[in-house]
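Thread: "does anyone have the structure for this chain?"

Original post by V.I.:
We have the sequence but no experimental structure in hand. Need at least a predicted one for the grant figures.
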Amino acid sequence: MSEILIFTHVDYCPPAHLETFLTRHGETFREIRCDQGELASVDLDRPKAVAIMGGGMSVNDPLPWIAEEVAALQHFIRRDIPLIGHCLGGQLLARALGAQVHKMPYTESGWQPMRKLADSPWLAHLGDEFPIYQWHGDTFDLPEGALHLLESPWCQNQGFSWGDKLLALQGHPEMTSELILAWHRDARHLLDESQDSQENFAESLSDLDAKVARMNRVAEGFYQRWLGLANAA
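Reply from O.Q.:
Generated one for you, tokens below.
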């Protein structure tokens, strides 16, 4: 029987709202910790859809499991199954498609406005501008044949689609209030709110539940299409 896989890489980047969405829709899934060698036991011909979550490492770090994960994603791309990447996950998809991932001269963090650049079924539920939570210092180039979907003031390549079934995002639409608060509690020292690309801490956390609820609706539009493609096959 085919299954849904979620690739994760660190404890602090879980499936979060994606898990809530799948549970609500009666879908079972299996989480694969790629950084812990769990990918080696996966039958790559079995999944009907794969989501790739974030992580604090870079695609360019000399970690042996990164090459293994990129190769697995290339196999899924050849199989033409639905794929969705979040932050590091989006960068891994870009690398799997032959694009470069590189360090930015600053970190982009907080609630950043996304501007829609193209008409796409992935964006049909969205207006011309909407916020997605960010925390990244790397960014991807666009792969050959990709459709550029989103940009923000501090990151030109915020999202792309490739073919009909692949969506790569630079941000974190999967976040929950609890996860954002945990990130601020444990890692705020890594940020510098005096930088224009990094939202003021107080502003990031103000009216948090309402902001997250709005972003969850953005995420669910992405997830509805991803899951619909998986179940239509």
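V.I.: this helps a lot. The chain has one domain: 3-232.
O.Q.: and The longest strand covers residues 101-116.
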